[in-house]
Amino acid sequence: MIEKSPILNFVTHAILLAAAFAMCFPIYVSLITATMPFERVAEVPKPLWPSDQLLVNMAAAWKKGAFSTLFMNSIISTLIITVGKIVIAMITAFALVYFRFRFRALAFWMIFITLMLPLEVRIVPTYEIVSNVLLPIQRILEWTGLAWLIQTLSGVRVVLKLSLINTYLGLTLPLIATATGTFLFRQFFLTIPDELAEASKMDGSGALRFFWDILLPLSRTNIAALAVIMFVFGWNQYLWPLLVTTGPEYRTLTIGLTAMQPGSDATADWNVILAGALLVMMPPVLVVVLAQRWFVKGLVNTDK
Known about the structure:
Strand content: under 5%
CATH topology of the domain at 65-259: MetI-like fold
CATH superfamily of the domain at 65-259: MetI-like
CATH class of the domain at 65-259: Mainly Alpha
Oligomer: single chain
Radius of gyration: 25 Å
Number of strands: 0
Mean pLDDT: 84
Largest sheet: none
């Protein structure tokens, strides 16, 4: 047992306060800058008290960055990613826990190993598939000689192509699978007594009925915790939306924010840019704050 010590308490609290200050001070400076008019941005020393231009700068950032379309794109893509990750993770974990099939452990470990393969590592083949989702079928036809046979018999060359570039599907489908969510739900399902499944089976309920009536209500807090994590993950995506979108129709807020920065020969309106950054930060911050109780409960507790 660790005994209480005034000196130890002082040191630990000092470290925590120093770390909190190091993390929060840049955000505070950004907030202060976002409230200033352009003339005061370059003042030395830097003002540390807010001004009265926050709403004006936010309105300018919203108009300059064309945030209306970008905001809707971010909301739609983030919701698709969040819901898709939760649904696929729950179904996958349900199959791994409650169905007996060969190589079940191997399937789980193959899913778990993908945690070491982030999108940045597999981004080239992923982009190649998204640019033509029928490419695997095209390759199979070529490798088996069927494409050559069809061309020989009919004189028609088989070329299959379906691009998802500049679509919501291309923006979201490669990000939907989640090993983290599968592992979270698998570990939770393993803690549910087997008697529940046996009683449900004796009552005549099938697998889907057991999943819908029993597992889903018990997983509410886990779903809430995963939803918060995946919403923040989906909202903050930058590299993949940058590659898979070529026009403003499907660009997200994170891409629009970087587009507000001028070139090297222009003057940057940092008060407007940082006001835009606050607008981009607000949705995930609100989600975390409003769902904090469910998030913590889902990680440390269950509804059982």
